[in-house]
Amino acid sequence: MTDFKGLLRALTDADVEFILVGGVAATVHGSARLTRDVDAVYRRSSENIARLVRALAPHNPYLRGAPPGLPFRWDSATVERGLNFTLTTDVGDLDLFGEIAGGGTYDALRPHAVTIQVFEVECLCLGLERLIHVKRAAGRPKDLETVAELEAILEERRRLEQH
Amino acid sequence: MTQPSAPDPVVEAYKKNLDRSLIRQNLQRSIQERLEALMELQRFAEELQRPGRRIGTR
């Protein structure tokens, strides 16, 4: 089970610049679908990568699904060399993206993100309309069902705003 | 500003079968309550998978 509080606190306490996307962002906006990991787009600056490494290091990040004992080092050099990381940590599974299809980098997504307050921390989450756009751009069959729910949430939200 | 996309027939078909009462219920909740409900759902899914894995290893 994902410890959202622990994971979000670890990232925000270290001042990591990130935006929640994917299934957890959908949950934030009102989705009732089950998602098991946290998807986040992180800023690819050297300073932010150093903060990200520091934030997760105490939680033993490792490549999810990889056999134990691989010479995987969670350090800035590893993150600088890669882009996207599918990790398992002591506080839950975390997918880190340097960029995403249909959305791009942290800097491209930032204007479409909203600030949320949860578990006594403040962080960024991709806005609902952009999340729909990104899910459509991903183009995977499983995303179409998610898009349907997200569009229904948008319709319900607009309906509530009108009343 | 994100431009609205053209309706996708598959998405529209999925929408017809959505339980909107569940969406409305979720929209009444705070973000933290939504995430706590997700954690509860994850816990429940893991509970269900445990006996399934035991059966698989027999």
| Order of helix and strand elements from N to C terminus of chain B | HHH
Proportion in helices of chain B:
over 70%
Low-pLDDT ranges of chain A: none
Q: List the quaternary state of the chains.
A: heterodimer
Poorly predicted spans of chain B: none
Q: How many domains make up the coordinates of chain A?
A: 1
Mean pLDDT of chain A: 95
Please render the helix and strand layout as text.
The complex is a heterodimer of chains A (163) and B (58).
Chain A: H1 4-13, E1 18-21, H2 22-29, E2 37-42, H3 46-56, E3 62-63, H4 76-81, E4 85-89, E5 92-97, E6 99-100, E7 104-105, H5 106-109, E8 113-118, E9 121-126, H6 128-138, H7 141-162
Parallel strand pairs in A: 1-9, 2-5
Antiparallel strand pairs in A: 1-2, 3-4, 4-5, 6-7, 8-9
Helix pairs in contact in A: 1-3, 6-7
Chain B: H1 9-16, H2 20-28, H3 31-57
What does this molecule look like?
Chain A has 163 residues and is α+β, with helices and mostly antiparallel strands. Chain A is built from seven helices and nine strands. Chain A has helices spanning 4-13, 22-29, 46-56, 76-81, 106-109, 128-138, 141-162, and strands at residues 18-21, 37-42, 62-63, 85-89, 92-97, 99-100, 104-105, 113-118, 121-126. In chain A, the strands form two sheets. Chain A has a seven-stranded mixed sheet with strand order 3-4-5-2-1-9-8. The mean pLDDT of chain A is 95. Chain B is mainly α. Chain B has a domain at 20-57. Helix content of chain B is 76%, strand content 0%. Chain B has helices at 9-16, 20-28, 31-57. The mean pLDDT of chain B is 85. Chain A binds chain B through residues 1-2, 4, 24, 27-28, 30-32, 34-36, 112, 116-119, 129-130, 132-133, 136, 144-145, 147-149, 151-153, 156-157, 160, and chain B through 2, 5, 8, 10-12, 14-15, 18, 20, 22-24, 26-27, 29, 31-32, 34-35, 37-39, 41-43, 45-46.
